[in-house]
C-alpha cells in the first residue's frame, strides 16, 4: 500500500507519524529501536515496503513532500537533507497539537507556520569517525556505533527525539542504536 489515500483511510483512527527523509536508514533505525522495546507500529514506505502490526501508530516514510502533506500527520520528523523551503505544506497539515521534530537550521520556516504544534529542534550530534564506524559524543559519554552511515548520524538526535514520542527515553535509546548496522 503506497497510495496515500489508502494509507490515510487505513490510518484514520491511528496516530500518524511521518518521516520526511530520503535516507531509508532513518526509518530502519526508528523501527529497530521500536522493535527492540516491543513497541508496535505499522509502517509504510513510499518505496513499497510495509508492515502491518495492528498498532495504534502508523509510520509513513517519504521524501515526496506533497504526499507527506496529504498524510495529515500527528507527529513529524524532518531530516537534515530535506529542503527547508519546501516543507511549509507539510507544516500546515500537522494536526493541531501535533509534534514536529526538525533540524534547528529550519527554525525560520517552522516559525512561519500558522497552525499550533509542539516544536522540537535538533542539531547534528558531535561525533568522530573511527575506521568504518562512528563514535557519538553524548552527555552520557562516548557511544560507539556499528553504522558507518553519516546521513544516519546527522539525523540521530532527531530520531532520538522522535523515539521519545513513543516512550523510549534517551538512556534507553542508545542501547539498540549501538548494535544497529
From the structure above, extract its key features.
7 helices; 7-stranded mixed beta sheet; 3-stranded antiparallel beta sheet; 181 residues; UDP-N-acetylmuramoyl-L-alanine:D-glutamate ligase
Question: How would you describe the overall organization of this protein?
Answer:
It is a single chain. The protein is α/β, with parallel strands linked by helices and 181 residues long. The protein has one domain (4-178): Mur-like, catalytic domain (UDP-N-acetylmuramoyl-L-alanine:D-glutamate ligase, 3-Layer(aba) Sandwich). The protein contains seven helices and ten strands. It has helices at 4-10, 24-36, 65-70, 88-92, 107-111, 150-164, 170-178; strands at 15-20, 42-45, 50-51, 57-62, 75-78, 98-103, 117-122, 126-130, 133-138, 141-145. The protein has a seven-stranded mixed β-sheet with strand order 3-2-4-1-5-6-7. The longest helix is centred in the C-terminal third of the chain and has 15 residues, at 150-164. It is globular and about 45 Å long. The protein starts with a helix and ends with a helix. The mean pLDDT is 92.
